[in-house]
Amino acid sequence: xFLKLTxxxxxxxKYTFKLHLGYSSIEGFIAGVLALNEFVFIKSxxxxxxxxxxxxxxxxxxxxxxxxxxxxxxxxxxxxxLLKITGIVTRVPLLLLFFFPHDxxxxxxxxxxxxxxxFIILIYYFxxxxxxxxxxxxxxxxxRHENFGKLYGYATSVNKILMLLTTFIYGxxxxxxxxxxxxxxxxxxxxxxxxxxxxxxxxxxxxxSSLERVTFLKSIQQSIRSMNVIIKNNKPYRHFExxxxxxxxxxxxxxxxxxxxxxxVLHLNYSSVAFYKNMYNILAILMLPFLGKLLGKIDPRKFxxxxxxxxxxxxxxxxxxxxxxxxxxxxGIQIYAMLIGYLLAxxxxxxxxxxxxxxxxxxxxxxxxxxxxQSVHLFLTSVRSFFAPVLxxxxxxxxGFTITFVIGMGFVVIAMGIMIWSYKNDxxxxxxxx
Length: 434
Prior knowledge:
Elements: H1 2-7, H2 11-34, H3 37-43, H4 49-61, H5 66-75, H6 79-91, H7 104-109, H8 112-125, H9 128-142, H10 145-176, H11 181-200, H12 216-233, H13 235-264, H14 270-297, H15 300-320, E1 327-330, E2 333-336, H16 338-359, H17 370-385, H18 388-399, H19 401-425
Helix pairs in contact: 2-10, 2-11, 3-13, 4-8, 4-13, 4-17, 4-18, 5-12, 5-17, 6-11, 9-17, 10-14, 10-16, 12-17, 13-15, 13-17, 13-18, 13-19, 14-16, 15-16, 15-19, 18-19
């Protein structure tokens, strides 16, 4: 099927896909390392629960800067150069982790290392407000509509394969040496620069003839005005973002709690955590090509309902592990019966959400608007990241795990209701890239 598809690609699509695939492959390795990042912070570095929630926030809170960057990205004349500078500035600091201490006693005596780690990871994630809108613009402009979801799905499948291999090997390394991250992260930084340099070579359409010389305040005003026009004038997209806001609160308020739950309640080791992450990613890889095609055929809001229902299920099965603790141990890996349901639901979520989150907004707009729409989507993601992770930890500290999980499921139900109501009442005209 894949070979048949590639034979029908234009020269531009083939060139773009080659670079896109290379970028996704390297990012798969990096994602495999970052998959255990929160667990490393709480288990090896003994960071606090609030610090853990802040660590998760960094991956999305940086999108708040899109209110400053949106007009800048739109008009910057040399986006290739911008991507390369971004790659260097945000990846080089990871090399500093090589000099971190290799024992918990020193880390606990010098908490400044926790804050330095958080700062380095924050700098790393500062690439996202630049890279995410631009890659959406690049792919939407270089792939035809009928190939967009399929090619993105294939590239994401490769990304997932490399991620799970990396997570598995990295988990074994961490069980052997809890401080293996001190030499893995510098390698990650070097590879991260290579991946962004590959991305920079994908042709990017110009959105402005020149970089306008405007004041900083005016740039912010233009960004806010542009985002407001999109939300105000595109009703289906507005509903899409409403639904994402409620889903996002549920996800962000529980993802950190699940990490704490693995450590404090189930007492899982690195290999066990890596096992669960790898198992649902293996199933996700098998689903991705199918789901990539499905997203290209149905309303993205219908696709969102399926995706949101999967997170409802995986939170539910995680919660039920509190009441049904039966498990077996295989070669040091603890396999809980209730977490099998969690794995199945998480596998669907892990295959559908990358598609919906990264390219879902592109189905609501013209090709040249894809970057702007994704900027709005990412900005709103950052807004909820300011409070959702910390509130999740506070809910857990006040009410415990079960009530926190129930609150999360309640918000998911609201998100599904918004999407169902929207696509029944407001039709969406899919704009194709002919």
